[in-house]
Design a protein that fits this description.
0% strand; 226 residues
Length: 226
């Protein structure tokens, strides 16, 4: 009687064991333990057919590079001219300055370099030409005054070009200073001429004195009719 009980228990345990094995086998075919089970592993994303892990990493990197390029393009388009000009100038492209006069090209390049350092590049050809036209207007087409305009903005850390401050007063000061310099030069020249004439006169007198000493005669220094 006791032996029969143990035999039945063994059969029950074996049946249960085979049931667990079959269940685990089915779970393995389905990807592991059911979701929520403590033995379940995090579900990994499926890789495309035919791609290994290295290829997958390279594909991910390519997508990141594409996103970076998209961001660069967005930065080129951002802050576009309010006039509706959509032809953008990439930041790494050499700017076409064929429309700039040779007299203004050097100072205009200096201004553009200053803007690049501030990371405030012009985003379109139209906005670039508008900046150049403003420089011409502020300077009255005078390249020397244009340089002063640009230097004023750079020295003051301005983001744009502005009319010169106290330019008329400075011009008057320069005129007065130039007149003073010219006057000093004329004075120096006259003093030099006077000194030269005085030296010549003294030399003539010395020559006459020596002539008197050698002949013993006093030369006639009295003008005729005297």
């Amino acid at each position: 009687m006791a032996l029969g009980f143990f035999i039945n228990q063994f059969e029950i345990d074996e049946t249960k064991y085979h049931g667990i094995v079959e269940r685990n086998r089915n779970n393995g075919r389905k990807g592991g333990a059911p979701i929520g089970n403590c033995n379940a592993k995090p579900k990994q994303p499926k890789q495309p057919s035919g791609l290994n892990s290295t290829q997958t990493t390279q594909t991910t990197q390519n997508k990141l590079n594409d996103n970076d390029n998209d961001n660069d393009n967005e930065n080129d388009i951002d802050k576009e001219s309010p006039n509706g000009d959509k032809k953008t100038i990439p930041q790494n492209k050499e700017v076409d300055l064929s429309f700039v006069s040779e007299d203004f090209k050097g100072i205009f390049k200096e201004w553009l370099e200053y803007k690049r350092e501030r990371k405030e590049n012009y985003k379109s050809e139209k906005s670039l030409k508008m900046c150049y036209n403003r420089l011409l207007t502020l300077s009255g087409n005078d390249c020397n005054k244009a340089r002063l305009v640009v230097e004023q903005s750079i020295a003051s850390n301005y983001a744009g070009l502005f009319e010169l401050k106290n330019y008329g007063a400075r011009q008057n000061t320069d005129i007065y200073e130039q007149k003073r310099i010219d006057s000093e030069r004329r004075k120096s020249r006259l003093m030099a001429e006077f000194a030269e004439a005085d030296a010549k006169f003294l030399a003539e007198q010395e020559a006459k004195r020596k002539a008197v000493g050698s002949t013993g005669e006093i030369p006639n220094t009295i003008p005729d009719g005297g």
